[in-house]
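Narrative progress, year one. The postdoctoral researcher (J.K.) led the effort to move from monomer predictions toward full complexes, under supervision of the PI. The following entry was the first complex the group processed end to end, covering 723 residues in total.
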Amino acid sequence: MASHPSPVEQLDALVANVLADWNIYTTVLAGILVAFVLYSVFSTKDPDVHPFLLARQSTAAPVRLSGQSAAYRSLETPHGFPLRLGLNVKDPGAPKWTGGRRGDLRDIWRTAVRGAVNEDGTPSGKKGKIYTVLGREIAERSLDQVTQEINVIGQHLQKVKAKTVAVCLTDSTELLAAIFAGAFYDFKTVLVPHNLSPEILSAHLKEAQADVLIAEAGSLDLSVISKANKQLSLALWVAKSGSRHMDWNEVPKDAKKSLQVAVWHELVESSKDLAGFEVPSYDPTTKTPTVSTIWPSSKELGVFIEFKPENLVSAVGALGSALPRTERLNPDDVVLSIDSLSRSYPLCQIMSALFSNASIALNSVAGEKVDFALATAGVSPTVIIASSGTMSDYHRKIMQPHTGPVSRLGRSLQARSLDAGYMPSQNFFSQITHVGPTAELSLDKLRLLCISHRFDASPTTRLTSEQLTDLRIFTGARVVYALTAPGVAGAVAQTNAFDYRRLQGPSHFGAPLSSTEITLTNISESSPSEDGPIEGDINVAGPAVVAPSMTLVARGRISIDNTLELCP
Amino acid sequence: MSIASPINLILASLFVVLLYYHFKPKAAVTLPHGPAPVVFRTYTPKTLIEFNGENNQPVFLAVRGRVFDVSPGRNFYGPGGPYENFAGRDASRGLAFQSFDEEMLTKDLSAPLDKLKDLDADQLENLQSWEERFSEKYLVVGKLVAEGDPEVPAS
């Protein structure tokens, strides 16, 4: 028996033999091993969103028409239920269980002026502010002051029986006030991009049949415009604070009979005691007039898009709810738009910020292609709304050339946490790696970047998945990337703020918003595309679309994760 | 004292394995494809009758020109069910009369569709409530037109 030890005894001897070799190196190795196990256990974080929600981001309808794909919808609004119609405004005093109203622009302003409310509906006294960035200077306005301007301008325009008011201003409180005055005092607003040549502006006014023009004092030659626009009865100048001492009330000689001229700040000054700080009372069942914007198209002039209030509120509501609950705009936010408010995506995002009682910041240089670093200097925003043109420019000219070896190393480490599904934490080390690529920025509080891409913009401005990753890592902010199209208020589709996946090539545009429904038409039925992506012309329908449905002149693709991509 | 003892080698290789698993790129999550969407079609009584649930075909029935896929309710509408007469047929008249007999169906499949002109208010209401129930529960997968209608797809 003794010459044949049992297997257990053999094993015991083997273990004893191996352990007998334990020495100082073994202790060190074991220490490293334990430390590594502890590190990997405690450093793993849960992903921000369940990976399955990113693996299928929209739902396809169970039935489709021949030659078309199924209709795709946001996960918020399943098939068989209505798409998001509006803001779901609950009036005070309305029974608790009733559904809210769709609301309109007046409700947005009233909510902004009322300020944030506590859980039980009592006002918490926290109100947003409006900042205007003028170069290095910042002008701060309270919402009450702007209400007063809305009242003064609205009453004045009502007195002159304005029907259609063309607003040709840089992003400013006056621009916002004019839009809201239109809703409260019943006139259509037409947002015309500023810095157009007088001839083109004149043609726009003609097409819109505008009877009032609000423009920056001294920015244009009134005689050219009044010659071609006999219907124009009032020009309202907005004078910058530096040029208010001048007399702007001069009327060109040949238009003296038909055209009046007034100055914004003089009107406000003279009748502010009459107008008051109160939001005008209104009957929510009446409809508010339309707001038109111009979509730059291949035609020199661009096309007018007339948004009904229903389109706008549906888009505002959908943009608000498209953000994950923890990332929604809130009263502590400062939302800066560096994209022009005469475009519908920034406009709807700013409206959404006002409706969420966030503070907003407007920049007078805002536009489709601006210097990101310069435009964001001066304020410390938590949310920035920018265009893909601005961001791709910034990435190409500043961020990429300034990414040195240290930044690249830091980036690859932090990209690992993005791959694991959570935002990399900001610490001393990450700050060192960010110094280079973000040297010119002063965005300590930034948490969200909203980037919109025009579907017909140059393909060079389309951001790739890697560029979005760079932006996430180096600015430390989450990114949403939206596709915009003429005739669709807000956006057609927008990525999930928690979608950090790094994919190949140009980024996708996520799922449709809850205000739209996407169908691909003209798909080829012959190819066996059961599993592959479906390709076709993008057709958009829903309450945010001005027409019942609209087909974009672009091919799109629904990939395996049910997100929308533009075909190259 | 040697660094290359068996226990050190074991620990070192264990460490390498752990490192590998920690840094291994994880495969992206993909979900299997859902069922492919059904193509909306235009049926005539003759093409609709194939979808009566026999030989594992789906069960369709038509109500006032709308074709419903009632396969989830195969026990009722499929072969052997109490409503099996309706499978693959225009069921409008039968539902309106609340009767599941054969004579409620249009026998001649090439005849024009039943216009239901002779129904009274109660029967119309009855039909309406059936139709609402169907649209809540089942998918509309096509429309029914008479034989010879210009909308009939050329086969």
